[in-house]
Design goal:
By secondary structure, the chain is α+β, with helices and mostly antiparallel strands. The protein has five helices and eight strands.
Length: 168
């Protein structure tokens, strides 16, 4: 399978200069370097700028969690977790297939959390009883590494397993 090619416009401006800077020092495809730079830049820019796909603006929880308070037995409010102020998160998944496999585990909500964040929901949360976590206005980005063969094999397996549900 031949990798997709990037349009020439990708290699102009700041992105093009970054690709030119890294090119002599890496075996990575220039389109890969450009895509990583763009994801990292978008993450650093934060939640303000968005891209619209259809009518939805697109933008994990613990690393961007909100402050949590609890009430004591004496009816006092105390801080259980200070949370974080910087709501930007860049996830570098060095083995994307492992994360994709986790989607299949019973009770795993990773797929739902990523979808909620992608769809631009202002509040993303876990639903664990003992330690529920919530992130408001977080901005998360993911860079996933995989070989084409490994990803294609995983997706083919996933498609066979879910055909009865999704109608593929």
């Amino acid at each position: 399978m031949k990798p997709p090619t990037a349009r020439p416009e990708v290699f102009t401006g700041l992105c093009g200069r970054v690709v030119d800077l890294f090119d002599p020092h890496t075996e990575a495809d220039p389109a890969d370097v450009a895509s990583r730079f763009l994801v990292a830049f978008w993450n650093a820019a934060g939640r303000g700028p968005t891209i619209r796909i259809g009518a939805t603006p697109h933008q994990l929880i613990h690393a961007v969690r909100d402050r949590m308070e609890r009430t004591t037995a004496k009816d006092e409010t105390v801080v259980a977790d200070e949370g974080v102020n910087d709501k930007r998160l860049l996830v570098l998944e060095s083995e994307l297939r492992g994360a994709l496999k986790a989607f299949q585990w019973e009770g795993n909500i990773l797929s739902n959390v990523i979808r909620d964040a992608w769809e631009g929901k202002t509040i993303v949360r876990t639903i664990a009883k003992s330690t529920p976590t919530r992130a408001t206005d977080a901005h998360s980005s993911i860079i996933g590494h995989s070989t084409q063969e490994d990803l294609a094999a995983y997706l083919a397996t996933w498609k066979r397993r879910t055909a009865w549900v999704t109608g593929f």
